[in-house]
Design goal:
Chains A, B: This is Transcriptional regulator. Chains A, B: It comes from Natronorubrum aibiense. Chains A, B: InterPro entries: NAD(P)-bd_dom_sf. Two copies of one chain form a homodimer. Helix content of chain A is about 30%, strand content about 20%. Chain A has helices spanning about 15-20, 50-55, 90, 115-120, 140-150, 165-170, 175-180, 195-205, 230-235, 245-250, 250-260, 275-280, 335-355, and strands at about 5-10, 30-35, 40, 110, 130, 155-160, 185, 210-220, 265-270, 290-295, 310-315, 320-325, 360. In chain A, strand 5, helix 5 (about 140-150) and strand 6 (about 155-160) form a beta-alpha-beta unit. Chain A has an eight-stranded mixed β-sheet, sandwiched between helices. The first copy, chain A, has 13 helices and 13 strands. Chain A folds into two domains: about 5-190 and about 335-360, Rossmann fold (3-Layer(aba) Sandwich); about 195-330, no CATH class. Chain A has about 375 residues and is α/β, with parallel strands linked by helices. The interface between A and B is large, with 56 and 55 residues. Strand 12 of chain A pairs antiparallel with strand 12 of chain B.
Amino acid sequence: MDEITFAVVGTGGIGRRALEVSQHKDALTPVAACDRHGTAIDFDGLDVDELLAATEGNIDNEVATDGGKRTDGSRSSSALRSDGGAGATAAEGGVKQHGENKGVVASEQAQPSEDSIQDIIDHGDGIDAVLLALPNYEHDFIPRTADRFLEGGYSGVMIDVLKRSRVIGMLDERREAFEDAGITFICGAGATPGLLTGAAALAAQSFVEVTDVDIHWGVGLKSGYEDNRGTVREDIAHLPEYDIDTARELSDEEIEAIIDDHDGVIEFEDMEHADDILLERAGVCDAEDVTVGGILDVRSDEKPTTTTVSVTGRTFDGETATNTFQLGDETSMEANVNGPALGYLQTGVRRNRAGEYGVFGPVELMPGF
Amino acid sequence: MDEITFAVVGTGGIGRRALEVSQHKDALTPVAACDRHGTAIDFDGLDVDELLAATEGNIDNEVATDGGKRTDGSRSSSALRSDGGAGATAAEGGVKQHGENKGVVASEQAQPSEDSIQDIIDHGDGIDAVLLALPNYEHDFIPRTADRFLEGGYSGVMIDVLKRSRVIGMLDERREAFEDAGITFICGAGATPGLLTGAAALAAQSFVEVTDVDIHWGVGLKSGYEDNRGTVREDIAHLPEYDIDTARELSDEEIEAIIDDHDGVIEFEDMEHADDILLERAGVCDAEDVTVGGILDVRSDEKPTTTTVSVTGRTFDGETATNTFQLGDETSMEANVNGPALGYLQTGVRRNRAGEYGVFGPVELMPGF
């Protein structure tokens, strides 16, 4: 495949690991990375080692800094702002700061910026794909960010590792705009939704009717915890007692208290993961036949349960059976999110270069390697 | 998806079951089916029930009737001939004949034909995809059949359920011709290669380096044996004592003797299945790191072993792990071949309509549902 240039928006746990994994992919050249503090751009390819080392103590795990609905059409409503907005106070607590520069600006390759997303858009001509690595923003942040790229005249691939089912519809509403702009938007391209959704779609192929898809994940996050506090907060929002808004308002101390209450091991049931909508929109099964749950252990790197996808259906010859897909317990969440994310990114660029635009998911695309 | 019309070339076990499974797929309309005896064509859609019922006792499990190398460029060298050639005598033994008409001609929808492939080509304008359901022909039959469609000016999808690794290179040699003609050729689109190859490619996504892919299948074929004698013969050609040529020359009695020698349960190791080349050409791993084996039990419908894909690799963070994909034991070979074949067919038509031509495999495409 031809060389692919890509940008990472968000340099928390996912964005940083995406940069790291991309170093194992010959076809991929990271040329830009940004967080709400600034932007690093180098079309010869970022020095990933320097960037990761320089920012190791400066991971910005802030929660959404932009609580407002977009009402005035201005781009500032989805800027990665550092200047306030709902949640900004809690957000500051999410930045591990060493030295005087925050977040990505600790890298010598980065410049401070008031609107780093605009920096990426302004350089969009040289960027084949933009990976939105923002798991902990409010659910409409990604659609609104897509609007900014549309307004800025970007043409290329946008890819996210979102989780929430409700986001897919918001992206589908923009399908025509993406088609007109030449944007290939790949949604839900991490582990779940993502790799595991694709595995479910493949497993469905034995059947003429799928009656049940069960995705159950295990994550051991002891050593990855500091890097992935945003993801943990996102998970907590799936507990019955919380939602996106209330989880965003939790202080770090409150998060710790919740974890303590569960002795470090939190079990999730009936999570709102977009696997359901992604499978339904591809005709595999009804969204209501899909269940996603899992167990998160933040005090061990061992997985508390083996991540398993079970797809039950009826064959053309009248049998009922269950096909399964399991991830080896030694594969980390970071490996299972970022490998697929970059795999889908490569496939997205291929689709984009073939002139196919719109909104696609892991049920329709096989990730590249 | 828009309506898709397709033809089935070959009405043995696979072709017949493909027609049957397609009745569960709203988007698919079978409009043609042929074997070496004749052709059924109806652009309003074949009456699959009539065709299957009328030909139930007339399944043509003949081995290749065309042993000659193509030397003169004439189309007859890859016709589905009934008029002789190496293996013709043995071939006659493979036809279960009830009544006076052989094979598909027993259906009231079919007409006898001396060159049924040409019939399909001549009607190619109305056929979106051609499924080559010919597992037991010699290995270059499919590339030579592709040549006939190229010469005949066909533009659309061709899809096969071939097994042999060596065929992929022969198809890749025709890539430019396919591109010029507007043909999207999907190769290895059954179970293995096919569904299980795709599962291996997905399972690889956790890793930055794949060290080992092991595909091990189980098939219980008691009730499906009569329909799938061609596939059994193909499998026997994978035993160390045989090859494609010697297996083709075996009489039915000799096949039975081999089965008896094994008490009905034949184990295969290191099979030449194209999974290896398909994974290598997509960059997932080296062909030599892929092994395919399995156990066939022709005297039970229970699978003698659970079909399992194991993919072992190294993650970006230095772990070694194995991801697995397993088919439920109640899923028949027919379900696991024909579901994927029609799934890949749908995706192939989508690619073709988007203007993407050439040679593709299950590592690059996610089958539709």
